[in-house]
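[Solved] Which block belongs to which protein?

Original post:
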Amino acid sequence: DAISSVERYDPQTNEWRMVASMSKRRCGVGVSVLDDLLYAVGGHDGSSYLNSVERYDPKTNQWSSDVAPTSTCRTSVGVAVLGGYLYAVGGQDGVSCLNIVERYDPKENKWTRVASMSTRRLGVAVAVLGGFLYAVGGSDGTSPLNTGRDDTTELSSAERYNPRTNQWSPVVAMTSRRSGVGLAVVNGQLMAVGGFDGTTYLKTIEVYDPDANTWRLYGGMNYRRLGGGVGVIKM
């Protein structure tokens, strides 16, 4: 079910605490931090696909909805920040899986389309490394929210966006197909965590080395996870 509640983790006390709820219920929402504000982009509220965006200010513990909406409704969307812009990547709009990419300029409160990915991806994981925006895995068919899994293929492929040329280019594929995979940057490498390969929910982890353009398996979690959110905290 779609929910609006939000929790915050304190690594010093090893505790989760409730903070202000979003104004809308959202599942499949994309989140990222830009200028110390947490943005929640798109999602599905249980009945409709959303293009609305809201942002959270931790200083005031308040969400504001005065952010321009994306041009396309999106759930299972990937969101990341590169060069002072907030990017919304892929997802699905309730009719089709998307390869559309747009970016938000907070100074102008405006979304602008940029080059589309070569592959349609929902449940895609995105992260920024070395000045590139990476889009990893996902699936290229319809979502269970829509018409089921009949024409869904989980993806192992990955590609990256160069904002200087406004072009996407392929990188080597992961060792496993992964939709709903978590992605983070650790020590200059991408870490892909869990997901679903079309048959099994995964607990395996693999790491991408941008210098060698290779993925390698890197152990596993204690539990299998689909749609897990991952992030890095410096201790």
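(Second protein starts here: sequence line, then its structure tokens.)
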Amino acid sequence: MKQRLNKLIAHSGVCSRRKADELISSGKVCVNGKTVTVLGTVVDINHDSITVNAKPLNAEKKIYILLHKPVGYTTTTKDEHAEKTVLELLPKLSERVYPVGRLDKDTAGLLILTNDGKLSYELTHPKFEIDRVYEATVKNAVNRLTIKKLERSGLEIDDYVTSACRIRIIDRDKTKTTLQVTLREGRKRQIRRMFNLVR
């Protein structure tokens, strides 16, 4: 799996991507024993040997955190406009961790945080077809025709077209419907926008 060197270093928890660029430019990073100073260098995670400050990059302890994100927290590591970020919910860590994917500020649910760049890539890249399962409650009774419209691919939402999804009714009455929605993509506010489109 190929990835930009600065992104790999940052995702490994060594430092930020900007600091990784500084380390590369100053000759502190080696790939397969050779010093690399070119920004934008692409490496193969599975085959290349990488050292930062003479230490193997893969020597860092991997951390995996399962967090139940409450409503009101932004899924980001740093955002000057966010009132609260998910990192504020974590204990103090010696390594940097990053969210795998994201949940909207107004959404609660399971979130993985890790410094394992390979795992993050495999969980989020569409080619691996990893299901994302959500539970959504919407106003009014949603009928089968609406569900079929949402399940098929090709719904246009602003600047993108949705892929096919699966929807199962969990509970329904005259005032609301609770559904299980399974996606293989995670666009910004996708579920909210999908249901707004067919109201």
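Accepted answer:
You had them paired correctly. Confirming on the second one: The first strand starts at residue 2 and ends at 4.
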